[in-house]
From TrEMBL:
GO function terms (MF aspect): O-phospho-L-serine:2-oxoglutarate aminotransferase activity
Gene name of the record: serC
Cofactor: pyridoxal 5'-phosphate
Lineage: Bacteria, Pseudomonadati, Planctomycetota, Planctomycetia, Pirellulales
Sites bearing N6-(pyridoxal phosphate)lysine, chain numbering: 185
Its job: Catalyzes the reversible conversion of 3-phosphohydroxypyruvate to phosphoserine and of 3-hydroxy-2-oxo-4-phosphonooxybutanoate to phosphohydroxythreonine.
Stated name of the protein: Phosphoserine aminotransferase
Length: 351
């Protein structure tokens, strides 16, 4: 979280200006909260350039509930099949939930190379009548990130799990049928998930699906079909304002993220093979820098010594091993520099 946002939240915690009470105490129907919700939506819309053809929804259930919601709304009962590009762990989880709603097939799967790469346009074919094409723009565990949207026929809605790279760079929303992101990486605290969706697609879904999953309920009720996660939306609005007003927008954020990530990739590339990046160079993530060391012993030593230097949460996921440095938007340049310094120092002592 950006420190300035945490301080604002702290200042307003006991008494929300104008409310005479804490945000945690007022109703989600209170005019002040409704204004906060609309402001959060409008700030996101202006940051991303979202047109009126799209709804912006605030939902609960994390990114995980969207694995089911997407298939319930866009696949169930259509007689079509949904097509998935599997480039890492989260895409695999998503397809397994979609299969409960209808036919969902992987038209690309990078499992043979342990999800270290992304497909080129010639590596897969999307059916013209697919219910949708699904992909994960940044696979958090593997650290592979699409640089551009995958090729997709105009007749097929493109769907993206943007959970771990939402707001890290400009996003051409009009290329998508639907995109979504849990907030807890770049957009705010855990508890809210943003869904940006073409309104005409919402209208096509079958109203008999479970009410919470039915996007139209959320759209028609301005994300207040039931009680929304008020605190998470309030903080998300502040993070969006920080991005727009303090950082200067998403193009500026991308520049900063490129500088931060490339400083670590440079150390990996110049380490003479001591650090080995997991992701192929052309699909390296701006958000999750994944790499291995020559042995498990050195990996354990790296993590332990890094911890002693107050560099935390570096252990890679067990499916990939090694190290994962997650450097989301709010990670300051100084934090990345401190890690880079430690990596260089560790190499000189152990290389
Ligand atoms: N998709 C991606 C890309 C993620 O990184 C995560 C969480 N790390 C999820 C989905 C699942 O999110 P949640 O825990 O909010 O359900």
């Amino acid at each position: 979280m950006p420190e300035s946002v945490l301080r604002e939240v702290q200042d307003e915690m006991l008494c929300l200006p104008g409310a005479g009470a804490s945000l945690l105490e007022i109703s989600h129907r209170d005019k002040l909260f409704v204004e906060i919700l609309h402001d959060a939506e409008n700030t996101l819309r202006s940051l991303l350039g979202v047109s009126d053809d799209y709804g912006v929804l605030f939902m609960q259930g994390g990114a995980t509930l969207q694995f089911s919601a997407i298939a319930a709304n866009l696949l169930r009962g259509t007689g079509k099949r949904a097509e998935y590009l599997l480039t890492g762990s989260w895409g695999k989880k998503a397809i397994s939930e979609a299969k409960k709603e209808g036919e969902a097939v992987a038209i690309y799967d990078a499992k043979e190379t342990n999800y270290d790469r992304l497909p080129g346009a010639s590596d897969y074919t999307v059916s013209d009548d697919a219910a949708y094409l699904y992909y994960c723009s940044n696979e958090t565990i593997q650290g592979v990130q699409f640089q551009n949207e995958p090729e997709c026929p105009a007749s097929v809605p493109l769907v993206s799990d943007a959970s771990s790279d939402f707001l890290c760079r400009p996003l051409p929303v009009d290329k998508y049928g639907l995109l979504y992101a849990c907030a807890q990486k770049n957009a705010g605290p855990a508890g809210v998930t943003v869904v940006v969706m073409r309104k005409d697609l919402i209208e096509k879904a079958d109203p008999s699906i479970p009410g919470y999953l039915y996007y139209k309920n959320h759209l028609d009720n301005d994300s207040e079909w039931n009680t929304p996660p008020t605190f998470a939306i309030y903080v998300l609005g502040k993070v969006a304002r920080w991005l727009r007003d303090d950082i200067g927008g998403l193009a500026e954020m991308e520049k900063i993220n490129r500088e931060k990530s490339s400083s670590l990739y440079k150390i990996i590339d110049e380490s003479g093979g001591f650090y080995r990046g997991h992701a192929n160079v052309e699909c390296r993530s701006l958000m999750n820098v994944t790499f291995n060391l020559p042995s498990d012993e050195l990996t354990a030593k790296f993590i332990s010594e890094a911890g002693a230097n107050r560099l935390a949460a570096l252990k890679g996921h067990r499916s990939v091993g090694g190290i994962r440095a997650s450097i989301y938007n709010a990670m300051p340049r100084e934090g990345v520099d401190a890690l880079g310094q430690f990596m260089a120092d560790f190499l000189s002592r152990n290389g």
